[in-house]
Amino acid sequence: MIVRATRRDQRVEFVLVDQESPKELPWAIINAFAADLAELNKVREHLGQNAFVARTFVRTLFSIFDSYSWFLKHRAMDGAANASVQFTEKELEIIHEERSKTFEDATSKIVPKIVPTKENLLFSIRAYARVRHVEAPLVSNALPPEFHIANDVRNRITHPKSAADFAISANELRAIGMLLVWFGSLATWASHEEQKTTDELIERNRQTFAEARERHDQARRKQD
Question: How far apart are the C-alpha atoms of 152 and 38, rounded to whole Å?
Answer without folding.
Answer: 24
